[in-house]
Amino acid sequence: MRIDILTLFPNTVSAVLHESILGRAAKKGILEINCVQIRDFTENRQCQVDDYPYGGGWGCVMMAQPLKSCLDTVLESAVGRKTRVIYLSPQGKTFTQETAKRLRRDYDHLVLVCGHYEGVDERFIEKCVDEELSLGDFVLTGGEIAAMAITDSVCRLVPGVLSDEECYTGESHWDGLLEYPQYTRPDEWEGLDVPEVLRGGDHAKILRWRRKQQLLRTMQKRPDLFEKLSLTDPEDLQLLAEIRKDLQRPVLDQPLSVRQAVPEDVQTLLSIAADARAMLKKYGIDQWQEDYPNARAFLYDIQRGECWLVFHGEEPAGMFTLTTENSPGYDAITDGKWTPDLSFCVLHRLAVSAKYRGTDVAAYLFRSMEEIARSLGVRSIRTDTHKKNRSMKRLLNESGYRYRGNIVVLVEPDHDPARQAFEKILK
Ligand SMILES: C[S@@+](CC[C@H](N)C(=O)[O-])C[C@H]1O[C@@H](n2cnc3c(N)ncnc32)[C@H](O)[C@@H]1O
Asked: Residue 176: CA atoms inside 13 Å, Cβ hemisphere, count?
């Protein structure tokens, strides 16, 4: 790709465009970027490039002759090329990523004409220009900034300029979407964590998360772009459905906190348990459907100092019990085994209240619970869940818990006692 920029300020433009990525590509011969001084083509002694406007008015207008002579010289040196002459103008069509793709695809030579002052003699535009492009609906002093922006954006699509096509095909505006959020080290900065999924190494999950973020960001930041999308891919439609559901969830605009439950919290704990009961019922799971977990069970946990409540601001949002007591049935694990010789505690009665389901409360709950486990000096956490409890299994999986086998839990008589056992080894 060759780009000739016709300007009154060639040194300034050249200095910018021969830096960094484009500069390196030019050195390798992948790009040729020339900045040509229009003033060198004047035919008057004063090297004057502009004159007063006919009809009066402010400022000066660039004369057609120097522009045309400059352009002719450039075109003579580019015979045989597919050339497009572009005048940068606030009156042109707005330049977009689609324009960049088109220019890169259809031409191997662009001539970018930079106006200055009040603009250029209209007859030059009529006679010599193939199209006018604008950087946006605002007025710049000259076309140089627009020329640099367009050159940069077109050139980075030229093969070999960036290390891989993927460098730009995943970026904002490539397929009508904005890019997903990006993070780099460290894992935690000023109290903000890198999303867990990006640290987990599961490539399929990362791709799915990123696509969802692209859809969400475009919807929220650029509703005008979002409206233009015509999404048909079933995966995208599924992600959109998830996003719409997520958006109905409360925004966590208050600090999350955790504390040990006290006897006065029993009603709160029962109410969170009732939320969980309703959800389990909805999914056809006969766990927690009758008198369990009841006030007696919670009071027992509270007295042992093992029952915890999570709050969003002042509002209860979740609960869990973390006990060092071994649980009945855990030792008789089948189809697998616990990691031997590791001190452990057991996680029970974990639930997030209906209002906070699908928010970061669950992740916070897991983090807090693991910190408590560490402070107890144990090396692992064991837990169990019903095999049909898919959301709990997903949560466990995302939080680093691994399936260890099957157990039988007999706390609820006349109900399916089969549970799947999970374990996380603490780092
Ligand atoms: C001050 S402007 C002239 C504006 C002109 N009098 C008008 O109102 O349409 C001087 C030069 O800056 C460049 N320019 C200004 N705004 C631009 C934009 N939004 N996009 C591209 N080039 C622009 C053009 O090359 C233009 O000739």
From this structure: 11
- Average pLDDT in the 277-283 region? 90
Within 6 A (CB) of ligand 1 lie 88-91, 114-116, 118-120, 134-136, 138-143, 146
Contact 259, 309 (CB under 8 A): yes
CA 124 – ligand 1 centroid, Å = 15
Distance, in Å, from the CA atom of 38 to the CA atom of 70, rounded to the nearest integer, reads: 6
Give which of 213, 176, 6 is closest to 97, Cα–Cα.
176
Q: Are residues 230 and 283 in the same domain?
A: no
- CA–CA separation, 112 vs 89, rounded Å? 11
Instruction: Tell me, yes or no, whether 195 lies in a domain.
Output: yes
Q: pTM of the predicted model, to two decimals?
A: 0.68
Q: Are residues 297 and 384 in the same domain?
A: yes
* For ligand 1, atom 6: residue with the closest CA: 118
Write out the H or E segment, with its range, that includes residue 75. Answer: helix 64-76
Atom number, ligand 1, closest to the C-alpha of residue 87: 25
Q: Which of 106, 139, 169 is the last residue of a domain?
A: 169
203 or 416, which is more confident?
A: 203
Alpha helices in 309-419 (DSSP H): 361-375, 390-398
Ligand 1 atom showing the smallest separation from residue 113 Cα: 25
Q: Average pLDDT in the 170-180 region?
A: 94
Domain span at 328: 256-425
Domain count, the chain: 3
pLDDT in tens, 384-412: 998 888 888 888 988 899 999 999 887 76
**Six token digits for residue 48:** 């004057």
Confidence of residue 297 (pLDDT cuts 50, 70, 90): very high
Is there a contact between 412 and 287 (Cβ–Cβ < 8 Å)? yes
